[in-house]
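quick one
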Amino acid sequence: MAVMKPIASLDIPTGEEWLYEIKYDGFRCVMHWDKDSIRLTSKNGKNLTESFPEIVEFCSEHESTVANFLPLILDGELVVLNTDYQANFALVQQRGRLKDSTRIKQAAEERPASFLAFDIIGLHGTSIEKEPLLKRKETLATVFQQIGKGKTLSFVPGHSNPKQLWDILFDHKGEGLIAKRKNSTYQVGKSHRDWYKIKNWRKLHGFLTTYDSQNNYFTVGIYQGDDVTEIGKCAHGLRETVFATLKELFLTNGEKRGAFYHLPPAICAQIHSLDLYKNELREPAFASLLPHEQPSTMTRKRLKLDMAMLPETIELTNTDKTFWPKPGYTKGDLLTYVREISPYMLPFLKERALTIIRSPDGVEKDFFYQKHLPEYAPNFIERIPAGDNEFLLTCEGLDSLMWYANHGTVEYHIPFQKRASEYPTEIVFDLDPPDRNSFPLAIEAASLLKELLDQLNLISFVKTSGNKGLQIYIPLPEQSMSYEQTALFTQAMAWTIEKAQPKSFTTERMKKNRGGRLYIDYVQHGKDKTIIAPYSTRKTPEATVATPLFWNEVKDGLSPEQFTIHNVPGRVKKLGCPFSDYQLAKQKQQTESILTLIT
DNA sequence: GGTTAGC
DNA sequence: GCTAACCAACGCCCA
DNA sequence: TGGGCG
Ligand SMILES: [Mn+2]
Ligand SMILES: [Mn+2]
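structure w/ manganese (II) ion:
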């Protein structure tokens, strides 16, 4: 299926005539949607229909909503989304390779794909390629008004402010932007000057070790300790004269082995790349040569920081300082973690007054709680007045999060209500075993609680606290219950659990009276109480994270130490965020059963 | 981590 | 100019 | 009222 292809560009074209879209990393795909017939075709003509049954199923179910438009042709990107702004190419690629329909079905269940439509080129069976882009976008919007909101099939909106869009994209570490001329027609191929792609390149540092005279590629290496590791091969991006000089250098001074010419680490370069996947750079290209830099500085550690794309809004200090001595994680690792996890974590921090724990010299050194913003804090942190010329802490975006992390914040605690609201946004059960060894008690209690909540038809979520226990969330619709009501419910449930297994569970507050039993901390849910935020790091020796779980993970073998700043970002990308449907559940939650129970 | 009193 | 000291929460419960 | 608790 021949499609209109964007032309690579290093900078964003600006002006009134341009419309901007998020670029997603997936399969470029055209959807032919006719009555009782959905066909997905890649840009190379490959039929993808069988590989993405969830898309086909969604369309079939919603066919009646678009009956008036059929047959229609949508152009878009077939993706597996990590977040609204970042797609997971590795996963969509794996999906495309699956042959067995059972395995395809399973993958569609675990990580469902989305078709993100950015253009419509056929309507009522006739081509509308000659209509201007803005008109096609309007048509597309009309079609999607009928289909409705949904994750499986959605609409990529155009934006007029590229700076704003780039900021969002940067915060989410998205793939890039597409700039499209508003009045342009749809022209297959690349012979146009109307669509440009601007990628969100990571800029990393390495040295060149080998020249391959067969294909003109240079191998990029870095130091890993004293050893040199190769991370990719690079040919494009240099001016012709520079490239020729570089080639000549390798040919004359390099040690020849077959078609290869080797040099010891000396020539340094800045490289553009989309990502590092399995120690291999994706789409690397030269940005520039760095004649004044030392190859000894091009280390694995520096690569990690380069790939993290930490915001440059504030100066990030002491990135080498050890914060978790036991596993050897540094402040740089903390900053990298919060940067990576922010799209998943920020929704739970926004619009709430925070209580943080800071431990500026690492988790084994002095720490303190903080609820008020110091006067010297940057202006981009929103201030909630709290009398006495004091202001409560807020965290509305990545820049704020980075500022907190740079100040040695290792824990983020949040209240159950948003600022300027009296109503809890969720009910949370806090299950505290006496120690890590008793974590199985938390698994037991959580499973029991889950059964009870299921019987009440309540949607619940579970996370590790990152310390010793588990916490169970019941999202509530806006202003649906008061704290007085939720208190009655948490107390009733706590007593039910305690009564069910009094030898294992207790609501006794005094530690000395608990006798090795798990504490059902129902007091912890209330106004002005706080709970550790999802994905917050913890001040534990192992650098554990308060980690959202899938309910089917709550079983023997689960333990809090399995989830650390080292592996949680990867876990969330691979498995998805178990709390991704939290907002949806909040809307759908039926609280009648709770209200009945407490009256 | 940032600020400030004291040397 | 440097170092050291100082500062950075709070509400509820019950003996 | 202050120590325990989170
Ligand atoms: Mn607790
Ligand atoms: Mn310090």
